[in-house]
Amino acid sequence: MGLLSDPNRRRALISLLTRLNAPICVVCYMAGVAWFMGLAFEPFTLRTYMSENAMGSTMVEERFPAGERALGTGREFSAHKKKAGGMPVDWLVKTMQSRGLEVFTQRFSRRLPFPDEDKERYMVKGTNVYGILRAPRAPRTEALVLSAPCSPGDDNNQAVGVLLGLAQYFRNQVFWAKDIIFLVNEHDLIGMQAWLEGYHHTNTTGMDWSPLQGRGGSIQAALSLELSSDVVTSLDLVLEGLNGQLPNLDLANLFYAFCQKIGVLCTTQGKLQRNDWDSVSGYSHAVQTMMLMVMKQASGRPWGDHGLFLRYHIEAATIKGINSFRQYKTDATTIGRLLEGMYRKLNNLLERLHQSYFFYLMPSLSHFVSIGYYMPAFGLLALILLLRALDLWIQLATPPPRTEDGVADAEQMSSPGVLSVLTPLVISHLTGVALYTLPIHFQEIAVEHFPVSETEAVVLTAIAVYTAGLALPHNTHRLLTGRGTENGWKVLKLVAVLYLAVLLGCTALINFSLGFILALTLVPVAAFVTPDVPKALSAFIMVILSPACTLLFSVFLFQELQEMPVSFLDGWMLYLSVISQGILDHALYGSLVYPLVALLVYPCWLLFWNILFWK
Amino acid sequence: FLGEQCCTMKILTLLSLLATHLSASSVNIEENAGQFFSSGHTNNWAVLVCTSRFWFNYRHVANTLSVYRSVKRLGIPDSHIVLMLADDMACNHRNPKPATVFSHKNMELNVYGDDVEVDYRGYEVTVENFLRVLTGRLPPSTPRSKRLLSDDRSNILIYLTGHGGNGFLKFQDSEEISNVELADAFEQMWQKRRYNELLFIIDTCQGASMYERFYSPNLMALASSQVGEDSLSHQPDLAIGVHLMDRYTFYLLEFLEDIHPSSKANMNDLFKVCPKSQCVSTPGHRTDLFLRDPGSALITDFFGSVRKVEITMETINLTEPIQQVDGSVSDGSSVVPPGVHR
């Protein structure tokens, strides 16, 4: 007889499952964490390689000569920027036209839901300027984008200078098969969002922008340049985009290949690669690089102007020039050559980049871990939830042992009504909805009654709603008819565990880092909470492992990993600004982290809080 | 009186010598006339095919064009060349030197020139079209330039290049021709008396697999690599950004540049082109189906269109019937196949 159809074997299997459930869960958890940590160990990773045949090797001759002139243009741009007090639109239009591009501008304006204290803006009005270099002989069906942000102050002047220098050099070449769009966007991400929405005729975030007068065909790839000094010591590649989406790995491979050919120092996450993978410090360096990528991806925010392109299936990355204290400096001509080489190779593309991986982690620029290798770490954590669900199902399905007291029997046997499960669900989700909507809508009332700014009002309202949710269990009980039955909490826990499994699974598919970090903290909570554990201690542990505290610890960890540790007070202020940025990202660009946490993860966690206080 | 006799003797000797000489040279003329028709072919054709498209396959087009260039230089006219190029590299948007296809780096040799006639271009290069060209089964509307109008006295050169594997050659990234199909096509050509002798050259990975299945007579085949080996490309040009030629055809071109129409180089020299030290792969050849000795087959028998001209003051008797291949005698009346009644 089969394993599951033979009643004896089934009973044996079931008893095995119930007896060993807790140990297996613990083992799975340790294995999942160990697997994740092992991903950064170099023998378990693969070297990066170019998958796209059309791009081939770095077999081009880069001849960009005008680095110094580009820096001069950057200085001119800086002067005009100071004079105009923002984007020097007329000067940019004139300069681009003199270089032979077709120049267009786009105006946009946006009122933020509440003031952004990090970037000090509330009513944002700006202009994007872009010039199109038409391919000399090709039809206008495809395009590449090179962008540099127009930042306030002294930032990114050299980036605009290099962009204009490259535009002039590219204009003299005849081998372009795609149009190249040179874009200077104002107000970084907001301007980029306006431009992309205008280009693709979508309006997902409610921004106000003027339609684009000139277009270049479907964009195949985009690079964003951030360069704030005349010489750099290294170039940093930023890959993480909106909602943790990553560009095709071939773009990173292309960048790395050219860095090696030209001899420029290249980093990812700002960390230089090391060769001693078998030493402890080498391994921990790789782990730090990977953890930085995981945290950046989990935050769901675009970490460079390129981050918004990814949503439109345009492979994009940001290249940042970093000037630190090293002997060997790279000048603007070399940077121009690197970009020229990359664009010549992208020019050879016949289809969109699709041969290499879209889901990966990079412990260093030359090694990567693909989805097939990192997903089992999450799978092991999800397994715990499934084992727990099976255990509860078995407990609910087995008839209770007969006792002499008929009354106790009757109480055990009465199946919990739908209401006793539905009520906590509904109330938790309503709390989630409150957490999602109240902070922004009640900011005026909050500002009236309390001496805080709007941003602080929003953040503090969010925290207040979150904490108020903790007081719920006692209220939910009153709504139930009588006290909760023994089986009631088991059914609720079964539903909650399955709900969490599905939620985390779907999140991990889209944004592995977010799913994994949430799983790390929520799975132990889900697995071990029952009404019978010691209340005070478990309540404390549950609060520590709740999404809000996870975020707090992540903020501190992130600062540590970047080698800029902060004191507790600074960390707390940073935490508050992270919350406000998360809400703003959702309103401005459509980031899904804030709604996910408020509407789905937080109610799920509340269900477990409910179970803890069932009796 | 003795002077007269001497003179007469001398004149007689001279006359007899002259007569012997004349009779001997007239015998030579007859022999030469016999030799004149011994090589068997009276016209030359070439079918040159490049089967890959896309900019990064620039070298395959350059391969085909270099063979085209040599073949034209040695005398085969465009009307006797069927040139099939699957993509247009000269006018590709990515070409930094438009209207050129280079075969040497530093742009020494432009094989595209200004008198290239491409007969099948772009998507017209398909397996079906290639086989139809070989076997002659083309729709009546096909123009003459797209037809292989060879007869039983034609020597044909067939050159294929592209991406291949063990037993197949890839056409246009979407279909393949197998070695069995190719062998059957050649057999059809033999049965329809469409060639006298055929030289088949292929420059792809595992090229030798393509001639393994040939079974028709008078075929000679060369390939750039054996089964299990890859044919490698020769040199990249950094200004253009692609590999310009494959190794085998590069050295083949170098070899052919030294051949002129009256060259007496023969096939054995051709087999020595691109040894393993230069090519990295091992070129192979097959001569078992070829009825003549490869040493007696000149390069110009296939690569050139050499008109044999001998100037003589003698008259040669050509009224004797010429023996045909099947033994029957041609005397002007039509030959009735057995079994068919008029």
Automatic annotation (TrEMBL), chain A:
Pathway of action: Glycolipid biosynthesis; glycosylphosphatidylinositol-anchor biosynthesis
Main location: endoplasmic reticulum
GO biological process, one term: attachment of GPI anchor to protein
Membrane topology: Multi-pass membrane protein
Subcellular location: Endoplasmic reticulum membrane
InterPro entries: Gaa1 (IPR007246)
Keyword set, alphabetical order: Disulfide bond, Endoplasmic reticulum, Glycoprotein, GPI-anchor biosynthesis, Membrane, Transmembrane, Transmembrane helix
Metal-binding is among the record's keywords: no
A Pfam family this chain is assigned to: Gaa1
A GO CC term assigned to this protein in UniProt: GPI-anchor transamidase complex
Transmembrane segments: 20-41, 418-437, 457-473, 494-527, 539-558, 565-584, 596-614
Complex formation: Heteropentamer. Part of the GPI-anchor transamidase complex, consisting of PIGK, PIGT, PIGS, PIGU and GAA1. Interacts with PIGK.
Function, as annotated: Component of the glycosylphosphatidylinositol-anchor (GPI-anchor) transamidase (GPI-T) complex that catalyzes the formation of the linkage between a proprotein and a GPI-anchor and participates in GPI anchored protein biosynthesis. Binds GPI-anchor.
Name of this protein: GPI-anchor transamidase component GPAA1
From TrEMBL, chain B:
Regions annotated as coiled coil: none
Bilayer-spanning residue ranges: none
Catalytic site: 163, 205 (nucleophile)
GO MF terms, alphabetically ordered: GPI-anchor transamidase activity
Pathways involved: Glycolipid biosynthesis; glycosylphosphatidylinositol-anchor biosynthesis
Signal peptide, first to last residue: 1-24
Pfam families, A to Z: Peptidase_C13 (PF01650)
Source domain of life: Eukaryota
InterPro entries membership: GPI_transamidase (IPR028361), Peptidase_C13 (IPR001096)
Keywords: GPI-anchor biosynthesis, Signal
One Gene Ontology cellular component: GPI-anchor transamidase complex
Alphabetical GO biological process terms: attachment of GPI anchor to protein; GPI anchor biosynthetic process; proteolysis
Keyword field contains Transmembrane: no
Oligomeric and partner information: Heteropentamer. Part of the GPI-anchor transamidase complex, consisting of PIGK, PIGT, PIGS, PIGU and GAA1. Interacts with GPAA1. Interacts with PIGT; this interaction, via a disulfide link, stabilizes the expression of GAA1 and PIGK and links them to PIGS.
Family: Belongs to the peptidase C13 family.
Protein name: GPI-anchor transamidase
Native source organism of the sequence: Cyclopterus lumpus
